[in-house]
Amino acid sequence: MSLDYNPVHLLQTPWFWSAFLSWTVAQCIKMTTGFFKTGRVDFEYLLSTGGMPSAHSSMVCGLFTCLGLTQGFDDPVTMLALAFASITMFDAANVRRAAGHQARVLNIMIDELFKHHKLHHTHLKELLGHTRKEVLAGMVTGVATALLITWLWR
Q1: What are the φ/ψ torsions at residue 4 (nearest 5 degrees)?
Q2: Quick check: is 128 in a domain?
């Protein structure tokens, strides 16, 4: 096995494209959904966190699926990708979601304090994590994208 030290060759692999396009598809789904809700195109969705589907889950599941399909599901790198995907999805549905709940409570406290005192305040971003349904939708998006990329790559 020879080592390739040219980072540009990364762009010539199905693994990169499965991960990148899985993330891109998920973010575009968010942007499209936002368009139907508001009637305007908001490019901030392309870099946003939270929402349906989870782009983080989509990306790591796309990478895992493509690695499994091309290298084998018993390959150590595929196992590493599975662990990475599991941790990412757990974090999205639990830790980051809890941080979002805390931000919501703090924003309510600041609003209540602001109404009674003169105080400048900044709202915290509340949409940090995902529901389990959003994580599952991200997983399905990533797997489907990776299946398509792997099929097209052959």
Answers
A1: -110, 115
A2: yes
CB 92 within 8 A of CB 56: yes
Predicted local confidence at residue 46, as pLDDT: 75
What is the extent of the structural domain holding 124? 13-153
List, for residues 22-77, the tens digit of each pLDDT value: 999 999 998 898 888 888 888 887 777 777 888 999 999 999 999 999 999 999 99
Q: In angstroms, how far is CA 120 from the centroid of its own chain?
A: 33
Cβ burial, residue 144 (10 Å; 0-12/13-18/19+): middle
- Give me the mean pLDDT over the 86-107 stretch: 76
3-state percent breakdown (helix, strand, coil) of the chain, nearest 5: 75, 0, 25
Reported as a single tens digit per residue, the pLDDT across 80-91 is 999 999 999 888
Domain tally, the chain: 1
Residue 77 falls within a domain, yes or no? yes
Alpha carbon separation from 74 to 11, 61, 147 (Å, rounded)? 25, 16, 18
Are 95 and 135 spatial neighbours (Cβ–Cβ below 8 Å)?
no
